[in-house]
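New here. Your pick:
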Amino acid sequence: MTDQSTPTDLPSLCRAPIILASTLLSFFLVWPYEASALEKYGRPLPSMGNTNGREAEESLFAGYLLTGVFASNPSFTARPDNTGLVGLRHMLHLETDLYKQYLTFYTDQNFFSDRTNGWIELSEWDGTYALTGVLGHFNWRLQYERDAPLDRKGVTQTYADGLVTAKFQAVQDFPWWQHRFPNQNLTAYAGAGWLFHNNNYFARPDNTGLALFRYVAHADLDLYKNKVVLYGDINMFTDRDASVPVRPSELDWIVGLAVRWRDMEFAVYHEQDLPLDRGGLVQQYLAVQLRFSFDISKQDLGIGAAKPTAPGQ
């Protein structure tokens, strides 16, 4: 571990994020949602289209390519052992529908570089593999993740978890919304998960404790026709070794602004990861990123398409 830690005063630094997290979770978890597709990303990104449209046909494969620059990074580390500082991030997301929206397989491959080691050489590889789907008002996910250093030996983190969320969409759930706000939308979800397998996936940014439960909340505010989107994300962990294992020990929050054109997106966002139950390391950064998405259905390639009927039949 490096000397990049920043002592924190919990009452002054954490009060606003804790209030926000509590409000989002308490509101979303009791709302009778009409759910659509599950946000599948470890660090959620706003959807680039109406995912409900995919329920009618199976996707052969879909995903996106992403590259980003950590423009300002005082403390977000470049390896699982909290060494270095992230400079660049590259990501590939791939998914395929096994059975419509009910069962989807996806993988995320995240790569980071160390700005203290020349920016270019990759320093960490995070690989995620998961099954996800939609059941009525709820979304579910089973996921395995492995985070490992690439340029040296060090700590490797692995875990497997299950997550259930419920989703709200203003256009669908508020009949009056589209009349008053024809070019805007609000989408949000919240839920909880259990890390049922955990090998070194820590409960705080300073690599202490072991994560047990996860609480999440996410919101996208579509400012104009899904071309300009303001989004926020809250992700909390608990410590299985704590006296109260359901009490959050870490809060990760993100706020960002995304601008879309066709299949491309440019985003600026800020993330801060901080401990909740004690002082310690706070990791934060400001990043800019470019994302290109793609979606190829089975019908696009003529797989499963209806055969033409001969004249007179």
